[in-house]
Every structure is written in C-alpha cells, then in structure tokens.
Amino acid sequence: MPENKPKKLTSKEPLLEYDIPDNQHNFDRVWALLKEEYPDAKPSLNYRNPLELLVATILSAQSTDVQINRVTENLFKKYRTAEDYASADIRELEVDIYSTGFYKNKAKNLKAATQLLVERYDGEVPDTMDELVTLPGVGRKTANIVLARAFGVIEGIAVDTHVKRVSGRLGFTRHTGPEKIEQDLISLARKEDLDSISMTLIYHGRKVCQARKPRCHVCVVKELCPSSIIFIGE
Ligand code: SF4
C-alpha cells in the first residue's frame, strides 16, 4: 500500500478525484484476485437472439439489468423483428420502454437503429464492430457486448461507468474517455481474459468499489490498490 496519501485534485484537472499513482505493474495480481472473487461474473440481461440482445443493451443505459428484464419480458413478445421496431409508432414505443429511463432518446435510437438494420442488413444484426457502431445509439460499449455475447467475437472491452471508476481507482488508467480506458485495459490483459474483464470490474464496482462509499475494508485487492489509503483514511 502506498505510504503517502495522493494529492487531491482541483476540479479542472483531468483524472478522478485524486492524483492516483500508476499501478499497471500490479495488474496481473489484482486481476487474479478479482477473478477468484467473481468467478461467475456474467451479464444478466435476458435475450434469445442478437436482435433482442441489441435492444436490451441499448435500453440498459442508466438502468439495471433487473429493470430491463422486466420491461423486455413484454417488449419481446410485442416486437419480434427489426421491422416491428422500425415501423412502430414512436409514442407507443416510448410508452412500452418508459420505465427504463431516458425513454424518448432510447425510443428514437431503437427506431433509427432498426430502420438501418432493415435497410442495410436485411433486418439482421451485423457481426462486425465497424458495422455495429454505425447504428444510432450503439457505441463501442454496446457493440463489444453484442459481438461477445451474440456472436462469440471478442473485439475489446465494454467500458461503462463501473469499469471506468474501478480501473481509475486501481491505477490501471489515467484516462477518462471510454476508448482510451479500453485501450489501456487491452494492453494490460491477456487475450483470453478480455471477455471477462468488463463484467468482473462491473461486479466489483457494484458490490464493493461503489461510487460514493467504496468498501475498501472488505475489498480483496485493498493491499494492491493505490486508492485504498484515500478512502480508508477518510
Ligand atoms: S481498495 Fe477501495 S478503491 Fe481500491 S478497488 Fe477496493 S474498494 Fe475500490
């Protein structure tokens, strides 16, 4: 554990709240402990095909998997093909996904994305990163999830708010943009681990390294984490 508490940053400085020292040399040890702690870290969204996974992942922004599963249980009965979403009345679609939050934006993206699927891909979800990120509402995070879960293609690491926070606190990245964080993690991880890094960090972020009050005293990597001194000392 570092001896000196890192300097607190002003709001104009780029990293997280503190100037967390680089800790990339400890990645393998931290990763081994986290993998052991969360051996079954898997996404819990329900879906039966690539289209349902794409829809569920677009809806999951700023929501929980439990909430999305509640909504998609009925949604997937009503909308079965890309054409069903593409031709849906936008107000009706908004009502159908209302409880996922940000429903207006999500409905707009769902319609636009599925219209593109119908126009360009015969209603099917494409299986490459380059094609997926052309769909409205689909960034690298969503594309990585769809590629890995629907097609078994491991292209990169999905970076959400938990992955961003946890990897920053652990000193694995000094970046705040998802694409650069993804590149930092890819450079540290073994290829065979790329698929599980995102969900493992998400589990750790949800259960222990929580945004407001990280539970450092029960954290399995506290001895290797440069941020533990900040939070335990507070
Ligand atoms: S020691 Fe604290 S800050 Fe570091 S990973 Fe664990 S919970 Fe997060």
Concise summary:
This protein is mostly helical and 234 residues long. 52% of the residues lie in helices and 0% in strands.
Written description of the protein model:
The chain is an all-alpha fold. It has two domains: 24-41 and 157-232, Endonuclease Iii, domain 2; 50-151, Hypothetical protein, domain 2 (Endonuclease III, domain 1). The chain has helices at residues 27-37, 50-59, 65-78, 82-86, 90-97, 103-121, 129-132, 140-151, 161-169, 178-188, 194-207, 228-232. Helix 5 packs across helix 6 and helix 9 (161-169) crosses helix 11. The chain is elongated. The two termini are 16 Å apart. Bound molecules: iron/sulfur cluster. The site of iron/sulfur cluster has 14 residues, from helix 12.
Radius of gyration: 19 Å
- Quickly count the domains: 2
The number of strands is 0
Q: What compounds sit in this structure?
A: iron/sulfur cluster
Topology order in helix (H) and strand (E) letters: HHHHHHHHHHHH
